[in-house]
Amino acid sequence: MQLPLDRSSERPLREQITAALRERIESGELAAGARLPSSRELADRLHVNRTTVVDCFQDLRAAGLLETGVGRGTFVAERGATRTLRVRGPALKRGAAKAARNGAAARGGDAAAAPDFVWARWLAHARPLPRVHAPGAAGAEARIPLSRAVGHPDLFPVDRITDALDRAFAHDGQRLLDYPSPAGFEPLRDALRARFQRQGVATDRNEIVIVNGSQQGLDLVARLLLADGGTVVTSRPSFSGALDVFRWHRAALVGLPYDTEGFEPAPLDRALGGGGARLIYAIPDRHNPTGLTLSEAGRERLMAAARLHGAAILEDDWLAELSDPGEPAPLKARDTTDQVIYLGTFSKVLAPGLRIGWLLVPKVLFEPLLALKKTCDNGTNLPAQAVVHELLASGSLDEHVKGLRKQFESRRARVDAAIDVHFPKEARPRRPHSGMVAWIDLPRGSDVNRIVAEASRAGVEITAGAPFDPAGGALDGFRLSYATAAESDLEPALARLGRVLKSVLHGAGAATAPPLV
Ligand SMILES: Cc1ncc(COP(=O)(O)O)c(C=O)c1O
Predict the structure, then answer these.
(1) Over the Cα atoms of the chain, what is R_g?
(2) Cα–Cα distance between 501 and 424 in angstroms, integer?
(3) For ligand 1, atom 13: residue with the closest CA
């Protein structure tokens, strides 16, 4: 099977392949029941990465156009309603039979005349969506989660949040049950403004928008600036949740090598030159997924490049509360030309269930963002905003964060020590890292998926590099998150992971050891 791919196009290959396959299925060229080549075969034929084809198959499965049988391969789904089924007597078309099962049979003879409604026809127009792992997969609780970038539930300050909620309702109950302003709860915006000022970021209240988690901030910025695509430059690897958003908005992604000194200057200039890129997505502090923090000089260089080429920067400061005064100031504090959009969240230092994040934007973006925010959700949950405000105003958040910093630092030290003892020398983290994640580089061509699968069999969950690749391919590495597991589980989990790594990388050893939990 050959599909026409335009490699010079800004349209991602995944989208091109999905669209071409969809067209062949819808035109009948690929008939219902036709078997597709395996993802490996098709990837070889098209000279693309296998994960790209796997993702295309997944998109088409989600659209109801393909079906996969375990061990049988991938087939074009039966979408036409030509087969007849017998349901409670009358012979019905397949779609009508489905409707009958949904209750139409109760209407007797009418069911036979019901239209053949197939959601897949509409879903076929959906934009490519990322794979979402269903929560609560079998045995998930029994595993050691080194895959999620969020604190252990014991680190969620339940008592502080309960007190804050009580105080907020006692003080302002009726107001908190009204519609929120799309910009957010004013006392919270004021408290944030004071905080930004302490970080050296001068701001006006009319530059702050409270969002439903910083994930919504990413989406709103993309809606505003990437409505017709465009190019986003970011690190390789970069945060998968942001890449998903940019892809959904059909932006082209350019992933550049990145370390504590920032992007390599020549590739950055090439990517930004000639007005090539609209936006730089950067995570200068405790980068996800590497944990690296950008040096002072690296920050200056990045700002200079953005100024020179007229590119906007989206600075994602996902762990802003963990910053120490001695650390380099955020890019936003150096933003003399108003080119930086600054994004943050309380998910990591408080609790992700609150869904409270913030955007600090140049004034000219404020009104358009409010209009978008209102269009999307009419504003962010007001009681949750009031809780965060109470915690900020009372100093309770600062006390909590003091303890959290110690927790994360003690975990980081344990993880680094355990890696040095247990991992083979070819599997090394990028250093110095801090926050809640580390990135383990592996030799070129390592079978990362096998490492992830074997680790899972041994009871340890890690995340393969692929979701963090802006190029949509695979990366020779994986992310290790050390905030979610119980601290006492870290050393034994890494010992187990070390054995898996030795077994896969050296082809020997003890991956057959019994699971840890
Ligand atoms: C770098 C980064 N940005 C943004 C987010 C989104 O977080 P939330 O939507 O919970 O605020 C995450 C979550 O892991 C993240 O790691």
Answers:
(1) 25
(2) 7
(3) 149
Question: How remote is the CA of residue 7 from the centroid of ligand 1, in Å?
Answer: 31
Q: What separation in Å is there between the alpha carbon of 196 and the centre of ligand 1?
A: 19
Q: How far apart are CA 130 and CA 24, in angstroms?
A: 23
pLDDT digits (tens, 9 = 90+) for 145-154: 999 999 999 9
Q: What is the DSSP string of 463-493?
A: EESGGG-TTSS--SEEEEE-SSS-HHHHHHH
Binned at pLDDT 50, 70 and 90, residue 199 comes out as confident
Q: How far does residue 502's CA lie from ligand 1's centre (Å)?
A: 32
239 lines ligand 1 (CB under 6 A): yes
Enumerate domains of the chain plus CATH numbers.
1-129 (1.10.10.10), 187-391 (3.40.640.10)
Among 252, 245, 235, 230, smallest CA distance to 14 is for: 252
Atom of ligand 1 nearest to the CA of 352: 10
Q: Are the C-beta atoms of 178 and 366 separated by less than 8 Å?
A: no
Cα separation of 465 and 456, whole Å?
15
- Residues 365-386, buried b or exposed e (16+ Cβ, 10 A)? bbeebbebbeeeeebbbbbbbb
Token look-up 């955007």 returns: 359
- Residue 269: pLDDT over 90: yes
Is 213 a pocket residue for ligand 1 (Cβ < 6 Å)? yes
323 — phi, psi (to 5°)?
-65, 145
Question: What is the spatial distance between Cα 491 and Cα 438, in angstroms, rounded to a whole number?
Answer: 15
149 touches ligand 1 (CB under 6 Å): yes
357 φ, ψ to 5°? -135, 180
β 84-86/73-76 pair status: unpaired
**Main-chain dihedrals φ then ψ at residue 276, nearest 5 degrees:** -65, -40
Which residue is it, tokens 């000279």?
Answer: 47
Q: What count of Cα atoms within 13 Å lies in the side-chain half-sphere of residue 97? A: 14
Ligand 1 centroid–CA 210 distance in Å is 14
What is the per-residue pLDDT across 89-140, written as a single tens digit (0 to 9) for each? 333 344 444 444 444 444 444 555 666 677 877 887 888 788 776 554 444 4
Ligand 1 pocket member 288 (CB < 6 A)? yes
What stretch of H or E contains 196?
A: helix 186-198
Distance CA 263, CA 269 (A): 10
Name the nearest CA neighbour of 206 among 184, 225, 224, 226: 184
DSSP code for 92: E
Q: What is the pTM of this model?
A: 0.79
